[in-house]
Structure prediction request, 424 residues.
Amino acid sequence: MEKFIIEGGFRLHGEVSISGSKNAVLPILSATLLHKGKYKIKNVPKLQDVYTMIELLEFLGCKTKWTDQKTLEIDTENADNYLAPYEVVKKMRASVLVMGPLVGRMRRAVVSYPGGCAIGVRPIDLHIEGLKKMGCEIEMRGGYLDVKARKLKGARISFPTKTVGGTENLLMAAVLAQGETVIENAAKEPEVVDLAKMLKKMGADIQGEGTDVITIRGVAELSACEYEVIPDRIETGTFLVACGITNGEILIKNCNPEHLRAVIEKLRESGIEIVEKDGALYAAMKRKRPLACDVSTMPYPSFPTDMQAQFMALMCVANGVSTITENIFENRMLHVAELKRMGADITISGRTAIVRGVKSLSGAKVMASDLRASASLVLAGLRSSGMTEISRIYHIDRGYERIEEKLRALGARIERVRDENLPT
Ligand code: EPZ
Prediction:
């Protein structure tokens, strides 16, 4: 295993380019299962989760090839398998996103039931209920969901709570179903919209993506396509915080400010200067310490749960007390204990963390627990005096492409080394 060693106290300055969105590319790769053909997906980030999805697609019979640093060609001509095995699904819950397209095209899917993860139980009951409404029979056997549908018909599906994956799975199941499907209380995240845009390029009939109600009329035939994935809004937000926490000045290129309005507003409130100019973001932090401000995570377009841990790192050194409430996942505060090892003053009460800003943090040995918690610890390390060692950084590689190289290019002192204390 590997760890990061960070020497804190260096201002970030210069330019960084944002990679393609992890949470857009995963459903988009799954969607290629809806039609046998040759696809070209551009702006694909080189992330562990993308490699896992590629492994799953190849297990299902697809052939894949990187034609350049960011372009992946996928041939689904022989995608005749509908089994998503435990060995793959246990590595990445988002594997469950193959269920919708497999059922959509083959009327069959056998998918290992995804376990929870560090941040929560992560149920998929809403995915299952929606598929049943469309005519699927679903059995749980030996840890696998066995989904069958003699006929897949359109249905009216009203989600009691917003679910990104649930919206995406049912969107993909509906595009070849007979008749009309209406998804009410649909997720509106940019990644859902990106998937819908790709499906429409394939010939799907979809209206309302990005609003609370999405209407899909089933079509008889789809076609393969070329598609370019949107930039990663969470990586963008993470680098904005990196600029703020190190009193830096950076230009963030290849991003889409439209996708993270709530994050930009909140970071401006904390005192970071953020200026948009032709698809890039210029950020500078002239204040010694950020201003304390409260955040409550909610579905898009509100402040995203995936930025909660990173924002908390910034508030740890703010001038004042802030409250951070996590409304989406029941256990997404695992970074708190590690931040406290670095001198942060945080108390948790229910779903809310009360953060009393301190003048400075001090480097320590800490452990990553999940993807965004790891990012939070890197950000705190950049600000801390002395050295910080972060173990189990495989978590961060799931969602950030070469984060240490990008940070080093901005002037950070961060190295990836083998962790002699943990088995390889
Ligand atoms: C997606 O997860 C993202 N992952 C997550 O990003 C993100 O945090 C989450 O959406 C919320 O925005 C990908 O897109 C691959 P949900 P997903 O279904 O689809 C409950 C990251 O760090 N729920 O919107 O699994 C669920 O428990 C990751 O990049 C049900 O109760 O999230 C949660 O409380 C982490 N039943 C809430 O809804 C269901 O059937 C939101 O979950 C489905 C969800």
The mean pLDDT is 97. DSSP finds 14 helices and 24 strands in the chain. The longest strand covers residues 2-7.
